[in-house]
Amino acid sequence: SWLEAMAMQKPIVASSIGWAKESIEDEQSGLLEHPENYKNFAKKIHKILTNKVFATELGQNAGDRVIKLFDQKKLVKQNINMYKQVLNAK
Q1: Which of 59, 4, 7, 2 is nearest to 16 (CA)?
Q2: What was the pLDDT predicted at 33?
Q3: Which of 26, 38, 45, 71 supports an S-S bond with 32, CB 3.0-4.6 Å?
Q4: HSE-up of 64 (CA within 13 Å, CB side)?
């Protein structure tokens, strides 16, 4: 759901656990926080809700990042090329 929100240029605050760091650049295309740091998590949500310019910038950067790294057409081409390399290596 993070990628879908990012694709719609929505600013997000997400858990810093797991694969979040692969898709979200903290303070650039979203905000990351460890879920145990609930006060900081809440502060980051508050920042997005109260700073419209910052929120808009995060959302735009998020949308750009999804297109750059997760565009379906690019991923399909990468997969096809990888399979071709595997088949040609045999």
Answers
A1: 2
A2: 96
A3: 26
A4: 10
